Amino acid sequence: MEKTVFEKICIILLVNLLFFAKTITYKYVSDDIPVSQRPKPKEWWRVRLLQLEGCIRTTPQEDHLLTTIIHSLVCVFIYLGFGANDISFLASFLFAFNPINNQASVWISGRGYALSALGMTGAIAFPYIGAFFLLLAAYSNAGFLAPLALIGSKNYWLLGFMPFIWLFYLKMFKKNVVDKINQEMYDDDKRIHISKLILGVKTFSFYFIHSLIPIKTTFYHSYMQSLAGSGKEKAYSLKDRFFWIGLIIVGFILYRFIFCKWDMINFGILWWCICIAPFCNLFRMSQEIAERYVYLPNCGLMFVLASFLIQYPVIYSAWIAMYATKLWFWMDSYMDDYYLVENSCMHSPDAWFVWHVRAMKRWDNKSYPEAVTLWTMARIISPKEFKILFNLATALKLAKYEKEADEFMKMASENIPKGQEKMANSLMDKWHKGELPLLL
Q1: 75: which of 92, 122, 186, 196 fits an S-S bond (Cβ 3.0–4.6 Å)?
Q2: Please, are residues 55 and 35 in contact by the beta-carbon 8 Å criterion?
Q3: What is the pLDDT of residues 106-165, one digit of tens each?
Q4: d(C-alpha 173, C-alpha 189), whole Å
Q5: 106 Cβ partners below 8 Å, 6+ apart?
């Protein structure tokens, strides 16, 4: 018997709530920890509003439950917004269980990405109150430009609200961008040149492939690491399968857009392209590669995938099983901050940054020799990393190995990332004066 829309909504909600129920027992991890230490306002309504936004934490149980509810609603809105049909029903489950969505479906600090997805999918699910949902979508940097994807939908008229919404958020958006530029960007990140297309194609391809087939799930990816610093040469190299596969993917997309009749598959592809574009390292203001950036774009891509798999029920079942199995075991990494770092290191041992994070954790727990060992492992992977050389110099200085400490500081001074000279020189001045800071 054909199920009603209401029954399908109930199934989506129930499956999500049951699958993610165990996350309620998880603790705060990574960025959750400092946010949980922020003072809370006295007014209950402000607490709830800031909790929803992700600016404060109440209890791990409440915050994880809220994350699950938001993720479940995004799945419902995918079903409703992409047609309320069999394809969008299947797409909602592909999205629900996709392991690459974990940094918004499980991690509390991915709230901004989840809310942007909630706003975008809500706008197409309930277009007559779409302006309200677009206010939510554009609130965070991740979704500021995402509404442009609506130009390919039957609800393209919603774009008429966007000039007012963008103007409303413009001051906040500009501040966020300026802060990112000042704190995280190197000189090469700020430059616009034709070679950046290599980075764009490779990053686009990496995300596209990993969204469809979860080859590697980890909190810290090694791909494209230090692309504007010590890893620049490798990042721009054409000897990379993701570049050539990316050209094929881009060619296929252009073919669909130019020669095929516009349909919901094209809309799903357009949604993916527009929503992933800000994170393709053409003008990098964020982490080189992070799975949370894919959450919003994946709403469209999972509809495209479901459109092909609906013809092959056995393959669809196998695909869902693959997604759910991998996510089920990986999301246990969020049980505790220790497990998150350790599991990330096991899944991506070639990422220097995860060894660096492990070292910082050991240092904070006063396991100084182990921290030095872990920084040394990071240095083996990336020998010219300023942070690693600087921290080893500090550790050796504290251990009274003055000569070795000076040698590492000299190497650090020779490998300052371009664009970060002012910050680096200030830290080295403090170091020579005996303050001995560490860099995360």
Answers
A1: 92
A2: yes
A3: 999 999 999 999 999 999 999 999 999 999 999 988 899 999 999 999 999 999 999 999
A4: 19
A5: 20, 23, 26, 64, 67, 331, 334
DSSP structure string for 349-403: TT-HHHHHHHHHHHHHTT-HHHHHHHHHHHHHH-TT-HHHHHHHHHHHHHTT-HH
Report the candidate in 126, 93, 107, 177 with the shortest Cα–Cα distance to residue 334. 107
Model pLDDT for residues 336-345, shown as the tens digit of each residue: 999 999 999 9
Give per-residue pLDDT as tens, 205-234. Answer: 999 999 999 988 999 999 998 887 778 888
Rounded to 5°, angle at Cα 295 from 292 and 296? 125
Show the tokens assigned to 182: 């000042």
- Average pLDDT of the chain, as a whole number: 92
Contact assessment for residue 56 and residue 50, using Cβ atoms and an 8 Å cutoff: yes
Report the pLDDT averaged over residues 316-334: 97
Closest to 112 measured CA to CA, from 262, 288, 296, 251: 296
Alpha-carbon gap, residue 365 to 4, rounded angstroms: 55
- Where does 351-432 sit in CATH, by number? 1.25.40.10
Query: Which residue shows structure tokens 């829309």?
Result: 5
121 and 81 Cβ atoms separated by less than 8 Å: yes
- Which residues of the chain form CATH 1.25.40.10? 351-432
pLDDT surpassing 70 at residue 1: no
Query: Tell me: the pLDDT tens digits for 236-259?
Result: 999 999 999 999 999 999 999 999
